[in-house]
Known about the structure:
Keywords: Flavoprotein, Oxidoreductase. By secondary structure, this protein is α+β, with helices and mostly antiparallel strands.
Amino acid sequence: MTVIDSHEAALAAAAQVAAALAPGVVQRDRDGAATVPAEALAALDGSGLLALTVPSADGGPALGPLTLAEVTRIIAAVDPAIAQVPQAHYLLVDVLALHAGPEVRRRLFTEVLAGRRIGNALAERGGKHAQDLSTRIKDGRLTGRKFYSTGALTSAWIAVSALDDTGRLVLAFVPRDAPGVTVDTDWDVMGQRATISGTTTFEDVPAELVIDYAGAFEVPQQLGARAQLVHAAIEVGIAEGALRDTRAYLQEKARPSTEAVRAGASVAADDPHVLHRYGRTATRVRAASALLREAAGVLDEVGLVPADAAAAARGSLAVAAAKAFASEVAVETASELFAMCGTSSTAAKYDLDRHWRNARTHSVHDPVDWKYHHLAAWELSGTLPPNHGQL
């Protein structure tokens, strides 16, 4: 397994993964859940990147949010679906670092350092909200049904949120191949198709590795902010990928409109309206990237264990701003691509619509409007944002 021990080594590894993913990205998008992207995920799992944030006390490099955001952005600019697969993995590494006992830490961090990924089974349907759980652990056995299980299908372990015998929220870490675990490929959506975030069912599964999870959100925390930082980086990556493909199409394939020719443009890149749209779009993409770096820097300053609620709020709101803006910019950039490149760019053979489909699908992962709401409430009245994982 590759050992990554510096920010620079991590970025180099991310670039190698991105290069390996590039040739197959269109086919993975077209295949969706019909084909498990085993080769692409093997490149990710074998890169050493899964262990980026494992604490040094547990044998890891203990690299921080700045590195994680950049690694995610680099990969997402090529294939945001594959970049999203380890999003929950990094959250769960943080949870283990803060809340797991010595034996659970030893077992699971040994696995992570060996390139064995942790998938998630957290969200449910049928309740008042996604965390209104019906999954239970009773007498050491886990039973329940989960949806949006990103990464679970191809992971070594699955982290499952459940209520224990006392009704308290816990996380159970179970082997993917444990008896009673079934992961379906019923993932049929318009974007982020290669994540294959299908349904996972647990039927009387032994739950040996269990940690308290309710306590994570009973104190000021940055777990949610760090998890959302990865989502923000995915959006920035989508925007950068769409802008990259816009530039390539304009330089290599696009023709100027009839009106532009009459105005003296010999190539599409000389069309004054294309120049205006491209310049505006490129500026907004760079602004989104800058906000991402700023948010990661704030999280680095605040640390995984914030000093108090105000420090936690500072980190959460910095990420909220980056995620909200990047979500808008990614959708806009992926749409502007066609306005700049013209009718021929909509041809199915190019699959350029995947950028918009990925951006739009991922952007509604959690409500952007509430992020702006909480930012304004803090700025105008000093109201602390909610202490949960979706901001």
